[in-house]
Design a protein that fits this description.
With 311 residues, this protein is α/β, with parallel strands linked by helices. The chain is 42% helix and 16% strand. It has an eight-stranded mixed β-sheet with strand order 1-2-4-3-5-6-7-8. Helix 1 crosses helix 6, helix 5 packs antiparallel against helix 8 and helix 6 runs antiparallel to helix 7. The N terminus is likely disordered.
Length: 311
């Protein structure tokens, strides 16, 4: 694959045609049992104590609502912590460095709240953060799942130094140029989200929620994400790790992926050296797999969690 679906989404200049599809409306979030700040992170707690706790981390511009289907599905059997990153979903932004600050606050939160060996489950940027956390302290985690988030921003894997900095600036500049919240929301609805989720109804639903995020913070997160390259430390991840890759023939074929196997192969290349990594693909899905293929995504995560009890 020559590039990554989210890179293209940021730079798209016209709405891409979409295949007809029924909108998927995830169930509303249950009432949080606890809601509090932990440094730069906001935490909502759900569910019951039991098997290892699950920590859900949403992606760029998203809040816990992006994981509402999984939170509802697992709340009867697991203690669930849903994080909101600074600058997203109405939360106040923080100064850079973002990944460093948030990861440090994550470990402090675990210690202060006595969260023992959770499974971290991240989407997109949240998945990249899952890779970072798994590299930093694998001994403090039970396992990790990334839904279409990678240790290096696809399309930048061959870049080094100044070239990577330039690409990161190019990717973040259109977001930083948003004049106000309304134009920020409209840009996502018109240019990026049609590339990231299939149904137009889902595009509208996600845009209205993602539009609560801070444009400047979104640009800053995008820039840091594009500057990261976590590949040199992938060998430190000694815990089981599931990477879920979407495949959409209409979109991915434009970038050299003629089959789901091509996407899996590309993702395996970008994550080479991760000892216990498993890559699975979900067909007929774009970046927001939880909207396009919620049943298949839940099955993949549930199967992975079930496999942990046998280890």
């Amino acid at each position: 694959m020559k590039t990554y679906r989210f890179v293209s989404a940021l730079l798209l200049t016209a709405i891409l045609a979409t295949l007809p599809a029924l909108a998927v409306v995830p169930p509303p979030l249950p009432s949080a049992q606890q809601s509090y700040d932990a440094g730069s992170i906001h935490v909502d707690a759900y569910g019951t104590a039991g098997k290892p706790a699950l920590v859900f981390i949403p992606g760029l511009t998203c809040g816990p609502w992006a994981w509402s289907g999984e939170i509802n599905a697992f709340a009867n059997d697991y203690r669930i912590y849903a994080l909101t990153l600074p600058g997203f979903d109405g939360r106040a932004p923080i100064n850079r460095p973002l990944f460093t600050t948030v990861s440090a606050d994550f470990w402090k939160w675990m210690s202060q709240r006595n969260v023992i060996a959770p499974v971290v489950i991240g989407h997109s940027l949240g998945g990249t953060l899952a890779f970072m956390l798994a590299e930093q302290h694998p001994e403090r985690l039970r396992a990790a799942v990334s839904v279409d988030g990678l240790p290096v921003f696809p399309g930048t894997e061959a870049l080094t130094g100044a070239a990577r900095e330039t690409r990161a600036a190019q990717m973040s500049a259109p977001i930083a140029a948003s004049k106000d919240q309304a134009s920020f929301t409209q840009a996502m609805k018109q240019y990026s989200l049609p590339y990231l989720v299939t149904s137009k109804s889902d595009v509208n639903a996600i845009a209205s929620l993602a539009g609560r995020s801070n444009p400047a913070a979104t640009a800053a997160w995008t820039k840091e994400d594009a500057q990261l390259d976590l590949r040199p430390s992938l060998g430190k991840i000694t815990i089981p790790f599931l990477l879920v890759a979407p495949y959409d023939a209409q979109i991915d074929a434009q970038y050299g992926a003629k089959s789901a196997a091509d996407v899996v192969g590309y993702y395996q290349t970008l994550t080479s050296g991760t000892p216990k990594l498993k890559v699975v693909s979900i067909d007929n899905s774009r970046h927001f797999i939880m909207y396009d293929q919620p049943v298949a995504l839940h099955a993949a995560i549930a199967s992975f969690l079930g496999s942990l009890t046998a280890q």
